[in-house]
Automatic annotation (TrEMBL):
Pfam families: CSD, Ribosomal_S30AE
Lineage: Bacteria, Pseudomonadati, Pseudomonadota, Gammaproteobacteria, Chromatiales
Record organism: Alkalilimnicola ehrlichii
Gene3D superfamilies named among the record's database cross-references: Nucleic acid-binding proteins, Ribosome hibernation promotion factor-like
InterPro entries: CSD, CSP_DNA-bd, NA-bd_OB-fold, RHF-like, RHF/RaiA
Protein name in UniProt: Cold-shock domain-containing protein
Amino acid sequence: MQVPAEITFNGISHSDYNEDFIRERIRRLDNMADDIISCRVVVERPHAHRHTGNPFRVRIELTLPKRKELVVDKERNVEPHVQLSTVVREAFEIMERKLKSTTQRRRGHVKVQVAEGESYAMVVRMFRDDGYAFIQTEDGQEFYVHKHSVLHDDFDRLEVGTEVRFMPEMGEEGPQASSAQIVAKPGSRMSAP
């Protein structure tokens, strides 16, 4: 990892056990991909929460080359007997799967079914109230996406970090995407089973 990992605890007492556990999981990520630029982990207990119970939130952000970011945002209402380490482990398991998939795709080990002319990109800016977003391909090219260009009425499911496939085309204002479809969400928000 090029930049030392950053771990932040908000609304939770610091514990050497939890920090050591997180650092061990970060080392596992670092062993999976040797080109990780940075890793940031935020563990928190939100104050005002709409659910009952004892919510924990774990957010993991990995930065990879070519401005590629992977994000996992795991929130879970926790029963009194469930430890924070369980939620941390679940978040890191999601990140490991995402990193493995991304690394394999970047190395060409995974055959992705792409229709002729179709491209992949990640949402980099959202303007939800105005009904549009911008996506960026791995080579840095940006495309405008109107909410009506997102298949299955999924515009409201988009967020920064969501990976989409789309058909690139030239619009009146420049490059734009049509037939955009969600491929992978940046994180997982799950409630307790």
